[in-house]
């Protein structure tokens, strides 16, 4: 088992990574503070892994809430249903919420934990590659609004993250590729050697090779844990983790949540961010093309959907959380793969060129 510490003082916790973590032992039980647990999952995940979680939690009372499956259900209505179930079943501040599922489950259950009776403990048990390398780590919890992704949420750290790589064996190919987007992102923004490794191992990763997956998950979690430890609430360096996301969130909002997987939108968003970086002279054309090639090799889109126009993309970007009073902010490459920074004053004319080129790729 690999163990990574997220060092946040009183809010510190461990990320545990390994094969078969849910089959043996009682790691989850060790983190339960009270006598009651409330598991949030969906039917698809529960059919595979709920019994294993129950085995881990012998000795405490376990209630289960199954939310609908899909990004389109990451809403205030779903949050209200979870909180209503917590109340109906008499849960109090000593209850621990366990998020068993992908990013939608983790984000929604985490936000429920942050708000229920002003905050109860929660544990992340991510079952998709994307949630294992990104959304389960760092304490971002949220639901979507029809005008913008993740607009309603809170920073709220889990008590632990348990990543059983065996859960990836049942993961559909499309969702595996979506997770690879975040792995690629971590290499682009912070570690060129890690990017080189992903390039080398991309075939093995798509084949779900256990060694390659554990290595990639560990590398991504180390990068994210380091960034989060330095900037828990995204007042500075943590914003770099949004490489490609300004484009991605506009795609997801424009298409309607659930049409594109988050990782698919991030894949296209990274290609656009790399293109914009090259147009502004912040990286070479070779670096931009290399990122595009790896995104394509991961089985991801290399451009946004033609259904969302350039003007619509610009409008959705203006509502993005990363926008400030001074305008749009972009995370762009700063000299080469493995180095990024935040750029405020991107000329709209150049941004239009990137968006237009991306839409043409889709035709």
Provide structural commentary.
By secondary structure, the chain is an alpha/beta fold. The protein folds into two domains: 2-170, Rossmann fold; 173-362, Dehydroquinate synthase-like, alpha domain. Helices cover 46% and strands 17% of the residues. The protein contains twelve helices and eleven strands. The chain has a four-stranded parallel sheet with strand order 4-3-5-6, with helices on both faces. The N and C termini lie far apart (46 Å).
In short:
The chain is of the alpha/beta class and 363 residues long.
Q: Mind describing the biggest β-sheet?
A: 4 strands, parallel
CATH topology of the largest domain: Dehydroquinate synthase-like, alpha domain
- β content, as a range? 15-25%
Second rung of CATH, namely the architecture of the largest domain: Up-down Bundle
Query: What's the domain count?
Result: 2
What keyword list fits this structure?
363 residues; alpha/beta; Rossmann fold; Dehydroquinate synthase-like, alpha domain; 12 helices; 11 strands
């Amino acid at each position: 088992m690999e163990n990574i510490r997220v060092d946040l003082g009183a809010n510190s916790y461990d990320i545990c990574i390994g094969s078969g973590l849910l089959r043996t032992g009682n790691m989850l039980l060790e983190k339960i503070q009270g006598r009651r647990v409330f598991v949030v999952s969906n039917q698809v995940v529960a059919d595979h892994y709920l019994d294993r979680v129950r085995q881990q939690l012998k000795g405490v009372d376990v209630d289960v809430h199954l939310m609908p499956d899909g990004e389109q259900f990451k809403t205030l209505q779903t949050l209200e249903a979870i909180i209503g179930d917590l109340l109906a079943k008499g849960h109090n501040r000593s209850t621990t919420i366990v998020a068993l599922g992908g990013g939608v489950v983790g984000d929604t259950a985490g936000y429920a934990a942050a708000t229920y009776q002003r905050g109860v403990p929660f544990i992340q048990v991510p079952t998709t590659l994307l949630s294992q390398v990104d959304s389960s780590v760092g304490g971002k919890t949220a639901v979507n609004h029809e005008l913008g992704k993740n607009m309603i949420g809170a920073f709220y750290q889990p008590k632990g993250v348990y990543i059983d790589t065996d859960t990836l064996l049942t993961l559909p190919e499309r969702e595996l590729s979506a997770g690879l987007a975040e792995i690629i992102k971590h290499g682009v923004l912070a570690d060129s050697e890690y990017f080189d490794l992903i390039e080398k191992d991309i075939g093995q990763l798509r084949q779900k090779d256990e060694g390659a997956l554990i290595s990639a998950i560990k590398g991504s979690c180390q990068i994210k844990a380091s960034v989060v430890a330095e900037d828990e609430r995204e007042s500075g360096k943590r914003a770099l983790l949004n490489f490609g996301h300004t484009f991605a969130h506009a795609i997801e909002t424009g298409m309607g949540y659930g049409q594109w997987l988050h990782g698919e939108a991030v894949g296209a968003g990274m290609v656009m961010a790399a293109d914009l970086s090259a147009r502004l002279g912040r990286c070479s054309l070779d670096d931009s093309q290399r990122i595009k090639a790896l995104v394509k090799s991961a089985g991801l889109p290399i451009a946004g959907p033609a259904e969302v126009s350039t003007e619509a993309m610009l409008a959705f970007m203006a509502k993005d959380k990363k926008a400030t009073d001074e305008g749009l902010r972009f995370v762009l490459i700063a000299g080469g793969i493995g180095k990024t920074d935040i750029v405020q004053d991107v000329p709209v004319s150049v941004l239009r060129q990137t968006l237009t080129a991306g839409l043409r790729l889709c035709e």
